[in-house]
Amino acid sequence: MTYFxxxxxxxxxxxxxxxxxxxxxxxxxxxxxxxxxHTYIHQLKEHNAYSPCPNCxxxxxxxxxxxxxx
Length: 70
Ligand SMILES: [Zn+2]
Hints:
Blueprint (H helix, E strand, L loop, with lengths): L2 E4 L4 E4 L17 E4 L2 H11 L2 E2 L1 H4 L1 H11 L1
Parallel strand pairs: 2-4
Antiparallel strand pairs: 1-2, 1-3
Bound molecules: zinc ion.
The site of zinc ion has 6 residues, from helix 2.
């Protein structure tokens, strides 16, 4: 699993779940980071108070909303 790290908002996105609701692309390039390291992600959560992105976690519900909009 690859992670997208948003250093501006202190959020950790999951690559496959990241969507428009995450607003990851609105974060400046130098505040974004991509990683495969579970150790690094764990450190960000434990020591730097980073949180898993709620939009990525509720991906299931998000896709249902998208379907309804279509
Ligand atoms: Zn996200």
